[in-house]
Amino acid sequence: MEPEDKLEEDEERIEELPPLHIVEEDPVKKDVEIEIAEEAFPEEEEEILEKSQEKAEAKPDMAEKINCDIEEIREEVLEIVEEEEEEAKAAVAAAEREAEEVAKPVSMHVEIDDDRVRTVERQIEPRTTDDSMASMVRCLHLARTFLVGGTNHTATLWAGVNAGTIYAYTVAIPTAEKRQEEAVSAQLGKEVQLKHQAPVLAIAVVDHNGYPLPDSADVAKNRLKAADMSGQHKLVVASMEQFKIFHLPSLKPYCKFKLTAHEGALVRKASILKYTSTKTQDYSEWCLTCLSNLGEFSVYTIPALRKQLQAPCTRKEDINGISSAVFTLDGEGFYMSSPSELQRFSLSARNVTPPHCELELAEGMRPAPPEPQREVEIVAKAENEVQKSSVHDNSDVGADSKLADDSHVTADTTGDITQDSIIDHTSAVERHEEPAGQGAAAEAAASRE
């Protein structure tokens, strides 16, 4: 096909196409369509905005978290470094101690610190006692004190038994005119049961100053002052394991000291003694004194029960000495150191124990002294024996010297053996073998021959 024909066909096709119309868009309609599109997706935009805000807010939180983590890591590193430094110092100190111990001389003496080995307080468990021994009375105490009320004081009897029970009786004493007609009666007033059920060894009633109430017999003979009834009285109880003080008449606990729980010892003897000052006799204190099964004395104040003194007395194996110990009111006492010996002791600084004593014996109990004549005879006999022994020794020495002289003369005079030399030699030997008393007779016989 020729190019001219192709050109004509293209022109015919262009003439057949419809005319082109250009339509202008309405701006109002366009804005409405945009608003409709925006309203069609409101939720998606809000979610996008929230996520973007969360991301923006999370960035400072993450920064703070990172900073906190860095601080924690820094603190942990510092703690690790400090621990390593302490371990290094401890290792160096241990090495120095080992070196000092190696350098020290070996000693068989071991020192023990009492503070380190001191026993800690332990619970005192209730004990089970035999029914036949539970009611056995261990101590009695008579005192005029307040038991029924706080205004009127009455005569009382206190009894401590083996099961840790304290019985308080009110004693009704008739007047002197009716003593022959009416009998003394006692009625149980109160009862106290100790929790640990240890045997009660001593009971005493003290006044508000801590002084024990005196015996009525001592007051009547002016040996002690009358009891002070102005203040409140207290009851002092010493059991085998602890000391306890009660208010009277309510019997409410005031204070206590657990000897067994703190020191691991048991009370064997207990009493309230008087300790006078060394400077003046007018000042004195009454303290609770006890002897334990370890052979040690302990002194405690009243009513605070503070320990004032602890001193050894005897060995803990000396059971007879501990069980036989007795106290005096002035802070002294005795115990049996052997079956035939008494040992005196003193806990008071004012009262010492010098041996100012003597024992008077009846006539004939001591052995008779030796007679002086007998001694003279013994001395004279001894001197005679000494003289005889000296004479015997001198005679033996003379015979030996004479024999030596004879042999020397014989050897010097001649070297030949003759009849005279033989006789002289035999006579000398015989004199030497004979006793000292027969020497002179033998020499005379030899000279006659």
Offer a quick outline of the entry.
The protein is 39% helix and 23% strand.
Tell me about this structure.
- With 449 residues, this protein is α+β, with helices and mostly antiparallel strands.
- It has 10 helices and 15 strands.
- It has helices at residues 3-16, 27-40, 42-103, 131-134, 216-220, 259-263, 319-323, 372-413, 419-433, 439-448, and strands at residues 137-145, 154-161, 165-172, 185-193, 200-206, 234-239, 242-247, 253-258, 267-276, 284-292, 296-300, 307-312, 326-327, 332-338, 341-346.
- The strands form 4 sheets. The protein has a 4-stranded antiparallel beta sheet with strand order 1-2-3-4, with no helix packed on it. Strands 5-6-7-8 form a 4-stranded antiparallel beta sheet.
- Strand 13 (326-327) and strand 14 form a beta hairpin.
- The longest helix is centred in the N-terminal third of the chain and has 62 residues, at 42-103.
